[in-house]
Amino acid sequence: QAPSALSPTRDIEQARRRRNLVLGNMRRLGFIKTDEELKRYLETPVVLNPAPPVKETAPYFVDYVRNWLTRDRSLSPEELKSKGYTIIGTVDLNLQRICEEELSKGLREVEKQIEEQKPERFAQESAKLGSVKKGQARLARIKEVRSDSIVVTLQGYTATVPLPKTLPYFDPQAVVKPGNLIDIYIQDVRKGKLEAYLYDKTHVQGAAVLLDVKTGEVLALVGGADYNDNANNGQWNRAYQGGRQPGSCWKPLLYASAMDLDDASGKPRFTPGYVIIDEPLTFPDGYSPKNYEGRSYGPTCLHEALVKSRNIPTIKLFMEIGPKRAVPLYHRFNMVTRPSNWQLDAVPSMPLGTPNITPLELAAAYAVIANQGVGIPPHPIRRKLSARNPSESSIERAERVQVLSPQAAYITTRMMMDVIRFGTAKTTVGKWIDEQTAKGRKIPEIAGKTGTTNNCFVAWFTGFTPELVLAVYVGYDQHRSMGPKMVGGKTVGPIWARMMDRILQTRSDWEMKFPVPEGISFVPICSKSGKRPTEACYASGDNVFPNAAFKAGTEPSGTCTYHTSAPQESIQSEEDAESAYSQSGLEDTQNVPSRGFRMRFW
Do domains 117-198 and 205-227+245-518+576-583 have the same CATH topology? Predict the structure, then answer.
């Protein structure tokens, strides 16, 4: 009876007539007992069951592939669906699964950390915000949990806060319970009562991108906790869409660029031992940057400044290079969009990581440093085969770009290795490496950088081995803080370490050492003077970097005198310092001297 022709998916009316013929025969043969029963069956409409939802493997990666294929409009989304293309992707499904699982697990741990530090946040809010006012977002105490609402109290006020059908938490029962603190937005304040709604719109989110350093292939890409979770913006692919401020993960791009700059005589202008004075700094417009710790550290070599993520020395380095000269240096690292579309302002705060950057862009920028200064545009496709001619491949590869000299890239890599050994990632990523090494496991050399934005809105860790670069960030989709102390090293470092731990277990033949280019020498240096250390340096408690990398001929020849003599006073008057802003390059390309340079704007 030509089943394909009678299929309801092809001709539903023909299928209905055939169904009715069969029902009539069943009545005639006695399988259907009464005419009323037959009538009921005949009047039942033929309805197709909905197709089961397609659960794609690696949905965030697939989404990125679709975008990548259609971004230049040479192929429309409709053509991609209808033309029968076969796409050979770069994804390693094992590595993709690892990144998906560890990001999901890590985000749940971050949610627990956010809950644990709410009492500290509550105390800070009470001191800072004072009495309850309309328009505030702040923590309130849960008094009662109902089926569709909660009753909260705050400074003697009560409020009944409606709850959405889907609560924006990984573990709602752990968050929404009597006695806990919860974020609300105060819509109105009335006598003894508040009108308020739940401030949490979605749970904390994140992204991860894994690239092959030498080829630019995207090996794994995860843009959120769950692609199919519409209640939490699941299909927003944070790995390549939008962008977040990278915080201090942005700093290596400036330091790497500085290592390639020459002075007027053609000699390298900056080295890891170059000293900048870390002290209070205020610009004429009132901007007064601070280090994360809230204090200044005096003489600081560039190696130490990057390892300890010092803000003031970073800004001084930026100003000495000249902002208008420095901005194009950053654009060279944008391997995703060429020419670069980054929105970079030539202002003192920019080198601290204020531009919006995607994890894919940051991973590709770090790959430049990891790959001896060579930039490779990341790509998710090896071949695109047409249905008409499966043997033809139509993917064109973008050209590689020599962004840095191999020497500058390696010098920066050495500094970033010490971020893990001595700096902001020591207690997480560094601890993991030490634990694995103690077990006899061989771990490739790893370099990286933590990043945290103002008020802990977003936290990052991006790191690389000789073959891989992995960028991970966490934060709310809302522009809001995760809470005090939710910094990159503490928050994202453990997630990154677990991902990399499992990734490295998938092979036994990883390249173990970063290749050392010609013209590099290794010298121990004191973190304060940038010179060769003395016994006094080791005894001081300040960092001594045992294997700082220098371009041959630029390594320090003298020994440290900082730890054997009294610190020097300012060598620049306040009057001279007040002119630094106009001389810095914001208005022209002149430079401000930084060696022994102290700015004071009181």
Answer: no
Fold of 117-198: OB fold (Dihydrolipoamide Acetyltransferase, E2P) (2.40.50)
CATH of range 205-227+245-518+576-583; options 1.10.10.60, 3.40.710.10, 3.40.50.720, 3.40.50.970: 3.40.710.10
Find out whether the peptide bond into 339 is cis, omega within 30 degrees of 0: yes
* The predicted structure's pLDDT at residue 141: 97
Do 520 and 487 form a contact (C-beta atoms < 8 A)? no
Helix (H) or strand (E) holding 160: strand 157-162
**Confidence band of 276 (pLDDT split at 50, 70, 90):** very high
Distance between terminal CA atoms of the chain? 94
The residue among 373, 375, 334, 337 whose CA lies nearest residue 250 is 334
In this prediction the pTM is 0.84
**Range in 216-230, 379-393, 567-581 with the lowest mean pLDDT:** 567-581
Tell me the two tokens of residue 88: 């050979």
Write the single-letter amino acid at 158: T
pLDDT at 586: 35
Instruction: Of 511, 542, 510, give the one whose Cα is nearest residue 526.
Output: 542
User: How many CB atoms neighbour CB 123 within 10 A?
Assistant: 12
Instruction: Please report, as a single letter, which amino acid is at residue 152.
Output: V
% of the chain with per-residue pLDDT over 70: 89
Helix (H) or strand (E) holding 281: none
**Domain ranges within the chain, ordered by starting residue:** 117-198, 205-227+245-518+576-583, 519-567
CB of 206 closer than 8 Å to CB of 103:
yes
* The pLDDT of residue 279 is above 50: yes
